[in-house]
Amino acid sequence: MKPTLPSTMLPTRSYHATITALSPDWHGTTIVCVRKNGRICMMGDGMVSMGSVIVKPNARKIRRIYPKTVGGKIHKGGSESAEGDDGENNEGTIVGFAGTTADAFTLLERLESKLDEYPGQLTRSCVELAKGWRTDKYLRRLEASLLVADKKTMLEITGNGDVLESYDGVLGVGSGSNFAVAAARAQMDQDDKSAEEVARRAMEIAADMCIYTNNQFMMESVKMEEESEEKEEDEGKK
């Protein structure tokens, strides 16, 4: 009869998991959003990979969602908006996604419907999306993370029901987001750099360090509303 070993001496099975395996919200791409000098800039890479194979190098992972339009043009008070910073290029909501493409587009459609339901209320639309994403038995299986921004705010939405607002003007999602966010934060105190320059340099650093991020960047930006400056002027006049 074989002697039995004490429970403290029994061999145990070791388990090792990578950071990516423990963090399901990290996906093979990098999206970064920077708020600086009156502009919000969102930039991302274009790599689509399947395992160790690059399927596509220039996918479009950042999109602009417009409000309901008439004839394909945005109308304000019956007149078409002019192009430029104060016109159509500054309208809508910028959305960047990291994760499974089909899941991301499903969430984009849901977000668009929430924005139509609550026009001009980005935060409430994102909270309602996160509530449905978390509680719905089908939606909660979707694997993606979103960055959302408009002229007033920038938010991160996760499948855990989190809606996070940036405290320092920088947000990021994806496998290389930590590199991009750290690089962007290191440049935020340089007043001569624009939001686009900060985001581009941050993405370059992330592309050099993350194997799932390439250097074919796509960018969307909006000009922030100058509410604080107008309030200060009004208080000064009073």
Question: Briefly, what is this?
Answer:
With 238 residues, this protein is α+β, with helices and mostly antiparallel strands. 30% of the residues lie in helices and 25% in strands.
Number of strands: 13
Distance between the termini: 96 Å
- Provide a count of the helices: 6
Instruction: Outline the biggest β-sheet.
Output: 5 strands, antiparallel
- Computed CA radius of gyration, to the nearest angstrom: 22 Å
By helix and strand content, what is the structural category?
Answer: alpha+beta
Label the overall shape.
Answer: globular
Strand order of the largest sheet: 5-8-9-10-11
- Series of secondary-structure elements, N-terminal to C-terminal: HEEEEEEEEHHEEEEHHEH
Helix content: 25-40%
Oligomer: single chain
Beta percentage is 15-25%
Residue runs with pLDDT of under 50 for 5 or more positions: 8-26, 74-86, 228-233
The overall average pLDDT, rounded, is 78
Describe it:
Strand 3 and strand 4 (53-56) form a beta hairpin. Helix 2 (101-117) crosses helix 3 and helix 4 (177-187) runs antiparallel to helix 5 (195-209). By secondary structure, the chain is α+β, with helices and mostly antiparallel strands. The protein has six helices and 13 strands. The model is unreliable at 8-26, 74-86 and 228-233 (pLDDT under 50). It has helices spanning 19-22, 101-117, 122-135, 177-187, 195-209, 227-237, and strands spanning 30-36, 39-44, 48-50, 53-56, 62-65, 75-76, 79-80, 93-99, 144-149, 154-157, 163-165, 170-174, 218-223. The strands form four sheets. A five-stranded antiparallel β-sheet has the order 5-8-9-10-11, with helices on one face. Strands 12-1-2-13 form a four-stranded antiparallel β-sheet, with helices on one face. A two-stranded antiparallel sheet has the order 3-4. Helices cover 30% and strands 25% of the residues.
